[in-house]
Design brief:
By secondary structure, the chain is of the alpha+beta class. The protein folds into 3 domains: 93 residues, no CATH class; 57 residues, Arc Repressor Mutant, subunit A (Orthogonal Bundle); 287 residues, Bira Bifunctional Protein, Domain 2 (BirA Bifunctional Protein, domain 2). The protein is 36% helix and 20% strand. The strands form 4 sheets. It has a 7-stranded mixed β-sheet, sandwiched between helices. It is elongated and about 125 Å long. It starts with a helix and ends in a 9-residue tail after the last helix. It binds phenylalanine.
Length: 527
């Protein structure tokens, strides 16, 4: 409140003074009022055309404390000359005692240079009877005007630490076309009464301030990961993908590993890499789950089918028992033209519960469902996965995977590469390279590399491959159906987009909430 009434006063003061003096110079006429306050008052008046003003920024010269004493008592050389004049003759050794050490040191030399005094043996004697203390006069002038036009002299004074320079913003103010001695009463609302009475015609409406910022809204905000996730979802949806139900983080080893033809001795299944759940100790054997089925039904109903077919299709219901047996067989004894791994497959191991290590656990469930009615289909998911990793600047024990799977007849590896090129170009990555890799569930497998313009090197951006027959055929998918898939992390593209270099600034308990609420949306393809 005091600030507001103060600035209202400034507004009135400007109007009052303009009545008798024009133009005004804010720095001279209102020397004690801070410039921002003056500007606020002037803007208020200018928006009503009551004043017009120009801004100038000038250099102001101010005296240092030393210069102030010179203006009061005279320059060092003047003090030396004055002392010699009083005494007639001063032994050089005595001078500091009379005029002070500082004045003796600086003033002696200048007084010689000015030919005011001279040496006579070990003493100082007078040369000039009358002198003009120009240093003092110049400084006194500066004290009055806060300026000096002789730039050479000004630099000299600056070097001698007698003056300092500072920038000053000031305003030159004139009356505007609607100048009045007081701000007229302003109407902010047009009322029915004003219209009825016709008083609106002469009313003085308060002008709109279109530059005013809106009050900040204490609303919720999407996390950057969610914004980037939404961008990826849009890419998938635009290419006919259906979103998979990935809401459950805990799955059995069966869905996370065995069904993917990951052998039970695989190092990734080790305690070091996988988080196991101790309670409950054991999962149910794979079985129907109407809830998850209903979720995927709903997603599929809302998507366009790639396979144009409205006629009733023959559905072969899933047989979970058979599937379980098939998986055991393909690992332990070999089946479906595969010789298998040939080790004793443990049911206890497959029923251990884990925090899923990849979203491919869900893709597997979806593909088994697809075997009910094998048809071209595209599925994707973007959700959380867990790995027992050492946490550092770029790794967390939980992160998000983006995953896509495409099922069709007659798919080729070239088709996967072309698909990936199109997909990544939608996120602004135009050059891809593929490197042979290994996954237990895909053959061939390819790591995906993209050129990182900032780092000037190829960086790994994803993993992909054609799912193995050992994974697809136990599900009941036809032999001539091919499925390929790919996966990438959500965190890395998000960190690049938002310029975050430590993942702990993005996710976890150390995240600054302002970072979350103030960040703008992103466009993946815009760099
Ligand atoms: N599951 C793989 C990973 O975690 C990604 C992937 C998905 C690879 C599908 C091939 C096919 O890296």
């Amino acid at each position: 409140v005091p600030l507001e009434s103060h600035s209202a006063n400034v507004t009135q003061d400007v109007l009052n003074l303009l009545d008798s003096k024009e133009p005004l110079h804010s720095s001279d006429d209102f020397p004690t009022i801070p410039q921002p306050e003056i500007k606020a008052a002037l803007d208020r008046l200018a928006s009503r055309s009551m004043v017009e003003y120009e801004t100038s920024d000038t250099e102001e010269v101010t005296l240092t404390a030393e210069a102030e004493t010179i203006v009061a008592d005279g320059s060092h050389e003047y003090k030396v000359w004055d002392a010699v004049k009083q005494a007639g003759k001063i032994p050089i050794k005595e001078l500091p005692k009379i005029v002070g050490a500082d004045s003796a040191k600086v003033g002696q030399g200048n007084a010689f240079k000015n030919k005011w005094i001279k040496k006579d043996g070990d003493s100082l004697v007078l040369v000039a009877n009358e002198v003009q203390d120009t240093t003092r006069d110049v400084l006194a002038g500066i004290k009055d005007t806060k300026a000096l036009s002789d730039t050479k002299l000004l630099n000299d004074l600056k070097k001698r630490k007698l003056v300092t320079l500072s920038k000053v913003i000031s305003y030159t103010v004139k009356k505007g076309p609607k100048y009045a001695k007081e701000i007229p009463v302003e109407v902010t609302d047009l009322t029915a009464d004003m219209i009825a009475s016709g008083s609106w015609e002469s009313a003085n409406f308060k002008p709109y301030n279109f530059n005013a910022l809106g009050a900040s809204q204490g609303a919720g905000a999407l996390h950057p990961l969610n914004k980037v996730r939404q961008e990826f979802r849009n890419i998938f949806f635009s290419q006919g993908f259906v979103e998979m139900p990935t809401g459950h983080f805990v799955d059995s080893g069966f869905w996370n590993f065995d069904a993917l033809f990951v052998p039970q001795q695989h190092p990734a299944r080790d305690m070091q890499d996988t988080f196991f759940i101790s309670d409950p100790v054991k999962a149910d054997k794979p079985r129907a789950d109407p809830d998850i089925d209903a979720q995927l039904d709903a997603m599929e109903a809302g998507s366009r089918r790639l396979f144009a077919s409205d006629e009733k299709r023959q559905v072969k219901p899933r047989n979970y028992e058979q599937y379980f047996k098939n998986i055991k067989e393909v690992h332990q004894d070999g089946a479906f033209d595969s010789i298998g791994y040939r080790y004793p497959w443990s049911e206890d191991e497959t029923l251990r519960l884990v925090l899923r290590t990849h979203t491919t656990a869900v893709s597997t469930w979806v593909l088994h469902r697809l075997a009910e009615d094998p048809r071209p289909a595209r599925y994707f998911s973007i959700d959380r996965v867990f790995r027992n990793e050492t946490v550092d600047a770029t790794h967390l024990a939980e992160f998000h995977q983006i995953e896509g799977v495409i099922a069709d007849f007659g798919l080729t590896l070239g088709g996967l590469m072309k698909f990936l090129e199109t997909f990544f170009s939608r996120m602004g990555i135009d050059n891809l390279r593929f490197k042979p890799a290994y996954n237990p569930y895909t053959e061939p497998s390819m790591e995906i590399f993209g050129w990182h313009g900032g780092l000037k090197k190829w960086v790994e951006i994803g993993n992909s491959g054609m799912f193995r027959p050992e994974m697809l055929e136990p599900m009941g998918l036809p032999k001539d159906m091919r499925v390929y898939g790919f996966g990438l992390g959500l965190e890395r593209p998000t960190m690049i987009k938002y310029g975050v270099s430590n993942i702990r600034d993005l996710l976890g308990h150390k995240v600054d909430l302002h970072f979350i609420s103030n960040n703008a949306a992103v466009r993946l393809e815009k760099n």
